[in-house]
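Hey,
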Amino acid sequence: MDNPLRSEDRMLLARRIVDECLRISENDNVTIFFYPHNLPLVEGIADACFKKGADVLLNLYTDRFLLSYMTQLSVESLRQPSVFCRTLSENSTAEIWMDGTYDPSILRKISAEKSSAAGEGEAKAHWPVSKEKKVKNLSVGSALVTKPRAKTYGFNYVTWNRMMKEASNVNYHDLAQRGRKLKEALSGASTIRITGPVGTDLKVGVSGRKWMVSDGIIDETDIQEENFMDEIPAGSIYTAPLEDSAEGRITFNTAVPYSGRRYEKIGWTFTHGKVTSFTGDERVAPLKREWAKSSGDKDRIAYLGLGFNPKAKPGFTVNNIVSGTVSVGIGGNQDIGGKNEPGFSFVSTIRRATVEADGIPIIKKGEFVRSFKIPWRVSFQVEPQ
């Protein structure tokens, strides 16, 4: 199995997750969802939790286990929320997600109908309970770093691994500062306009919708605002646009790794918030089939996000946090304050775009305007491997 993090890096990341991101205490019950290749980091996180006096449960998945239940169970069964998953969320105060397969090429064997059904069932199992119980959820991006994943998606493994370390180790105080500035600028906006390459010109309504900041830390303010989810590496601000508001066209120019395939050149045309045209080259055909066969509000605008992590790079697994990028999604979005029913969900990213909030520029051709630029400091150094 791969071991992308050195032992000292794992210790630092584990402490950051426990001490800074989730602020674990003796009152916490922590569930960690993981695959075997992440066991060394998982054990480090558990150790850091135990030192705080917290209780910890390790919930193991394997590639074979995932493929078995996704192929053997019926669509109807997958669509139902798992009793086990729901019970774990009911009894956890924090959930850590390190749930990426070791080899994502196995995901190509799963039908579009079952993939959509499983997404619907998972959303029903976890999100309503998490909201009611105010369960903190953290996704750990380094869990995805494996050599089979790099091979499947055409990544340079060394470059990807180094980037993920650096993006995880930015100064989180600086990250939070930029997130607050962006939230202040966007919270009163009614309309966001995105213009950019290949004929992109999209308007979405955001009046009355909350903007969520992903700065890697779930604090009391986040809990009060029902922002229970974050990730590491972090660095984005996002919202659920008004479901019937999207008008125009967006053409994405950043590759997206998804379900064992790499998708590029996707384009959506929206009318009254619904996708009326879904385009792409021949490689996009499997994604379009999944979309066509899925349930839920698959054709509704669901997500709008701006990235601001200075160390993240596009074309890997963290497109949404790359500084100056714009991400747009369709499908379920109740977990971020929207009204769309779960089922299909897909987010893609455009670089070098211009973003205006009620006519005021926020990003120009992929660069934040001067008022949002702040100096960055590295939180701690990571040795290259």
